[in-house]
Amino acid sequence: MKYNSYRSEKIAFTILFAATFLVVLPVIFIILMIIQKGYSVISWEFLFTMPAKGMREGGIWPAIVGTLYLVLGTLIFALPLGVLSAIFLTEYAKNNALTRLVKLAIINLAGVPSVVYGLFGLGIFVMFLKFGASILAGSLTLAIMVLPIIITTTKEALESVPQSFREVSLSLGTSKWETIRFSVLPYALPGILTGVILAVSRAAGETAPILFTVAAFYLPKLPESVFNQVMALPYHLYVLSTQVPNVDIRLRYGTALVLLMLVLSLNLMAIVVRAKFRKKKKW
């Protein structure tokens, strides 16, 4: 009997390992291919100079700066709103039909194609509110797109905090908000940062939403206000690959490598911060 259980466990482990390997292998292959074909073009000039001659020469500095601006703007709008919404749904809202409907809508919004968000941003922020194609319109569109991710992960993080923490805090005479602020949020912070990591990854890599709301085809200068258009790495890569003829293929893979490293760097910073907070957890 023990032998059969051990054998079944070993077979299950082998199948799970094989499935994981089949998922990870293509990702590793793609990353290695991008590095192999793109590393030779990476230089100080490529990273920190303006594009020239219709993007066939020069660097991608405006696209890097534009991507960072959009990610920062997205977090400024989405993070406070997403966290506060999750706190309300978890700690204050009653479990009734309306609350369940809102939660279901949030889950469904996470699966909406990004091009739909782009069209929504075009209609609302660019045309109706007359922000024009700008950093503000692009950031608001991306913020709406990543809100379901932040709300869902924050809600799960809050629900993972033991109910006894709340009960002990309330029994000491603290208010509801003080309990959330000092006895719940500090322990839910690693989970909230997980949502931030996912949001940053999606916001930095999306092309469709910024195509309609902010991205410029060729703009060899830095933005001066939130109402300016910017170049962005995802759209810049799309343009190099489909719209600009006779472009050195190394420029395309070099741009893809920079985008990949930028996303990984932003994620790594968030992961380091999350790890520091996780060390403080005693339960």
Query: What portion of the residues fall into strands of 2 or more residues?
Result: under 5%
Strand order of the largest sheet: 1-2
Element-by-element helix/strand order: HHEEHHHHHHHHH
Number of strands: 2
Largest beta-sheet details: 2 strands, antiparallel
- Proper CATH architecture of the largest domain: Orthogonal Bundle
What would CATH call the class of the largest domain? Mainly Alpha
- Average pLDDT taken over every residue: 88
Q: What best-fitting shape do the alpha-carbon axes yield?
A: globular
**How many independent structural domains?**
2
Distance between the termini: 37 Å
Number of helices: 11
Low-confidence segments, given as residue ranges, are: none
| CATH homologous superfamily title of the largest domain | MetI-like
Task: Please specify the SSE layout and strand pairing.
Layout: H1 2-38, H2 44-48, E1 51-52, E2 57-58, H3 61-92, H4 97-109, H5 114-128, H6 135-160, H7 163-171, H8 176-205, H9 208-213, H10 233-242, H11 249-279
Antiparallel strand pairs: 1-2
Helix pairs in contact: 1-11, 3-6, 3-8, 4-6, 5-6, 6-8, 7-8, 8-11, 10-11
Structural summary, described in words:
The protein has eleven helices and two strands. The longest helix has 37 residues, at 2-38. Strand 1 (51-52) and strand 2 (57-58) form a beta hairpin. The model has no long low-confidence stretch (mean pLDDT 88). The protein has two domains: 2-40; 42-51 and 59-279, MetI-like (MetI-like fold, Orthogonal Bundle), CATH 1.10.3720.10. It is mostly helical.
